[in-house]
Design goal:
alpha+beta
Amino acid sequence: MFDLKWIRENKDFFDQGLQRRGVSSQSTSLLEMDETIRTLQTEIQNINELRNTTARKMGELKKNGEDITALVQEGIRLKNLLPELEEKERTLQQKILNILASLPNLPQEDLPVGDETANKEIKKEGNPPSFSFMPKQHFELGEALGLMDFEQAAYISGARFVILKGPLARLERALASFMLDIHTREFGYQEVSLPLLVKDDALFGTGNLPKFSEDLFKTNSDHWLIPTAEVPLTNLVAQKIMEESVLPLRLTAYTPCFRLEAGSAGRDTRGMLRQHQFGKVELVSITTPSQASAEHERMLMAAQTVLKRLEIPYRVMLLATQDISPASQKTYDLEAWLPGQNCYREISSCSLCGSYQARRMNARYRPQDPLHKKPLFVSTLNGSGLAVGRALIALLENHQQEDASILIPSALRPYLNNAEKITSHGTFE
């Protein structure tokens, strides 16, 4: 959300930021509507003052026994003028709110301009493995092991679901625990257990509503299933004023996530890459604007640490202005190498949102500097640390052996009773 006073004072910067997003200029129409509202408010105020004056005159005339018929008629006329003016004001106010709620955040200046084709590779880490055989995709490996069942999942729930069994189910659980331990023990994130059902305001606060309503699951009780733990985690500070001394606030959670994938028809129909339900370890930071950029780099480092220890090659991409999410000012994507597809695929997005979400959920902090007497909006950040299902995919494909067995990275073995691999028979060894 944007403040109209700020738009008035930064008109060109606002429009240029939207244009870099591929969105047309909005300041002129917004400020014209705001000016009309101000005119209407003045008219309403003048009419109310006239009504008060008329009422006083009526009282004086009535006290003196004089005829008040003309003043009564004038009072009725003035009263009848108000509903139309007030309705015009309400309509314009709502129109402005709807426009402001639909606008994306302004991208930072250092982002490449354009769509996903303009994304910039920042670095690569690790070398893609060299195989003496044709590497399989994760679903071929999982089905060959007898531990990944898409057919029965489709019978139970429909397309874009999977059933993991035995060692793969345990491997998924181990990955989540491994990620949570890294983020809580090494990077100071506080683990949180969260509701999976949220209300409209929570999704509006993070920017998921109104734009992404078609990609969300809604219940018949007017709750929504979370598309990511970012929603309840970030809303932990909604409608609050915090002391600056408690910031940065670092939070993490492992939850199921639910997405309709409405815009992905025909994409990634095989396997686990794009599902209606998947597990994810989420990272959220709440901080001051001055700390936000450094916190963004720190979050990126935390997510990379997981990939390094899982011995999964990856690259870091700086997303272009039209590829970042609506709430983001700046986003890094981590893309894991998938030998079965012979390409990199996104496994984490780390986004700096500035005050965009904070304004929508009224999340503020009280500065320690005595010169700042009023609370200020916090900056929010979020990132996947990581998407567990995609981490499982990358692990299977990068550590596969010719006999379809899967080597387990050494960092993960303590979570699996020190098993070194999943054998071609679908058992730990």
